[in-house]
Specification:
By secondary structure, this protein is of the alpha+beta class. It contains four helices and eight strands, in the order ααβββββααβββ. The chain is globular.
């Protein structure tokens, strides 16, 4: 069993802050993670794994595996599965700083503003070249890899509500490195329209 899997086989709210400062690598681009969101499966109405479906089944698998999904018909988002197998929990990679392969990331993103390259979950996936074909990748063995670093000092970690959710949005399960310029802008979900 990989050291990554062992480190992530813990409750999702313990695993999420451990991912701050970790480095996610793919195709000559590396991103230092600065913001994440925790999702706790059947205990969390905001989670894709609140009910197990074919799409969310990967979240019930072993820790350290990548869960990629396509949203709004145009964006990919990536999560790492956490907790014991069968739990259905994962942590969304919300934002990061490109620390290697800046020129490749700029070409993929079509921007030259470095702080914007991986600022937001869709931008992060675009900068790293993550697509649906990477769903279920073992992040300990590749082609995408995740390297945990030294834990960020808890005094430098902020928490707050998750972004864009209608269910359980106010739960303070978003974690970020305080003051980091690559952290995404908080936006609550738009209210549901009634007919």
């Amino acid at each position: 069993m990989s050291t990554l899997r062992i480190a992530l086989e813990r409750p999702v709210l313990e695993a999420a802050p451990l991912l701050l400062g970790a480095v996610l690598r793919h195709d000559d681009v590396a991103v230092r993670i600065t913001e994440v969101e925790a999702y706790d499966g059947p205990n969390d109405p905001g989670s894709h794994a609140f009910r197990q479906t074919p799409r969310s089944s990967v979240m019930f698998g072993p820790a350290g595996v990548l869960y990629v999904y396509f949203t709004y018909g145009m964006h990919h988002c990536a999560n790492v599965v956490c907790g014991p197998e069968g739990q259905g929990s994962a942590v969304l990679f919300r934002a990061g700083e490109v620390v290697e392969g800046v020129d490749v990331a700029k070409a993929r993103r079509g921007t030259t503003v470095e702080r914007e390259l991986a600022r937001g979950p869709a931008r992060l996936c675009s900068a790293l070249g993550i697509r649906l074909i990477h769903n279920r990748t073992d992040l300990a063995s590749g082609p995408l890899t995740l390297e945990l670093g030294a834990p960020v000092d808890p005094a430098l970690v902020s928490t707050g509500p998750r972004v864009g959710l209608r269910e359980a949005a106010d739960w303070p399960w978003r974690f970020w490195i305080t003051g980091d310029p690559t952290v995404s802008t908080y936006r609550p979900a738009a209210p549901k329209r009634t007919r």
